[in-house]
Write a structure and sequence with these properties.
two-stranded antiparallel sheet; six-stranded mixed beta sheet; 10 strands; Cytidine Deaminase, domain 2; globular; alpha+beta
Length: 183
């Protein structure tokens, strides 16, 4: 009889633990879904400040080095933009992938194609995040959900805070941690 009672308690506690884990996983999944949706209207003064910093690092597109801004979403839903640092690499930038990243913004030199290039597209597809390029000819986007490149802003309008009023949804899901190179 005692053995039957212990088995019953174990079954019930295992069931309760599994239910709690399932509920926690569902909450985490809902949080990931909410933060996975990157909207152009999320771009605010802080993001623009980081884009401007990247633009200054590459001397407004006159250097062959690139600069990167990594965008993530905090638990409270706010956007955080952080510089990816400086690179001495010509026409590319290497950084450690963080699964909290929901968008990548980087510069392209003025003497290169301003649109996201095949390696940029490969990174965007691999991590399922939008990949932006900022140049003097405009801001471009590769959206892995739509599987297309589009022009977001003309010239350097991407530096103008008041121009960020549209609310286009872009998919960007969490991914595993890996070294990542963008061009």
């Amino acid at each position: 009889m005692r053995l039957l009672f212990v088995v019953a308690v174990l079954c019930l506690s295992t069931f309760s633990t599994a239910q709690a884990q399932t509920a926690a996983n569902n909450d985490a999944r809902r949080f990931a879904d909410n933060r996975s949706r990157f909207q152009l209207s999320d771009i605010d003064g802080k993001v623009i400040k980081e884009m401007n910093g990247a633009w200054q690092q590459c001397v407004m597109g006159t250097k062959d080095t690139e600069a990167v801004v990594l965008v993530s979403r905090a638990r409270d839903g706010s956007i955080k933009a952080a510089s990816g640092g400086r690179s001495n690499q010509a026409y590319q930038f290497t950084f450690i992938w963080n699964p909290d990243i929901i968008a990548v913004i980087h510069t392209h030199p003025n003497n290169r194609n301003p649109e996201p290039q095949p390696q940029d597209i490969q990174v965007a597809r691999r991590f399922d995040v939008p990949m932006f390029t900022i140049t003097r000819r405009g801001m471009y986007l590769y959206d892995p959900v739509a599987d297309r490149v589009s022009k977001v802003k003309n010239g350097i309008d991407w530096l103008d805070t008041s121009s960020w009023t549209q609310s286009s949804n872009l998919a960007a899901n969490k991914a595993r941690s890996h070294d990542t190179v963008v061009q």
